[in-house]
Amino acid sequence: MKLLIVEDESKIGDYLRQGLSEAGFTVDLARNGLDGHHLAMTEEFDLLILDVMLPDIDGWKILKSLRESGKHVPVLFLTARDSVDDRVKGLELGADDYLVKPFAFSELLARVRTLLRRGTAPTNETKLTVADLELDLMGRRVTRAGKHIQLTAKEFALLELLVRRQGEVLPRSLIASQVWDMNFDSDTNVIDVAIRRLRAKIDENFEPKLIHTRRGMGYMLDNPDAG
User: What is the pTM of this model?
Assistant: First the structure.
């Protein structure tokens, strides 16, 4: 797998290139926006890790140019800009994920691998299914074993995140940023409470149990009976 990092902070760029190379990826590093844009437009990559605030041309413009040219390569924004408006702008322009600096390399690596598993083809999926659990994305409805389950908007968003990343342990920091648009506070148990309520609705009266806790790591959704 070939990755392109566009990052003007030399220490971060070198750190990412070394870490991702050691993880088995082929990595190109561009240290300004123009070089990154040229490489992204002229060469084939499996994923781009793109800073927003770059010399010459910013990450927003690079992404916009890529999408307008028909390139569907997955893009992970890696930036110090952490406002909700910035994240919304990136996703609306066609970014696939958004990670705020400072970051843990283990989390970045997990997100990279998840994006690569999804592939580059755009999707028009309207339903997600795990075992006898079904999410209707258009109607925002959930059923299990044919029984309708009433969820709040946040519970649906949390369940959708878990299902889309089935089999992957999600740290609380990732869940907080993706579902609640907030930085994780270790003194806050909002995520644990939400998981407990979701588990009561999704798993309590059904088999197999789908929502699992990995102590010290986070939460995951997986079907133990699959395969």
Answer: 0.53
* Cβ neighbours of residue 191 closer than 8 Å, sequence gap 6 or more: 172, 175, 176, 180, 184
Distance CA 172, CA 178 (A): 10
d(CA 48, CA 66): 11
pLDDT tens-digit readout, 194-219: 999 999 999 999 999 999 999 888 99
| Token code pair at residue 158 | 């949390």
* The architecture CATH gives domain 127-221: Orthogonal Bundle (1.10)
Residue boundaries of the structural domains of the chain: 2-118, 127-221
Taking residue 172's Cβ as centre, other Cβ atoms within 10 Å add up to 19
Instruction: Please check the confidence at residue 120 and state whether its pLDDT lies above 50.
Output: no
The CATH number of domain 2-118 is 3.30.479.30: no
Structure tokens at 53: 């605030």
d(CA 29, CA 48): 10
The DSSP bridge pattern shows strands 97-100 and 127-130 to be: unpaired
184 three-class SS: coil
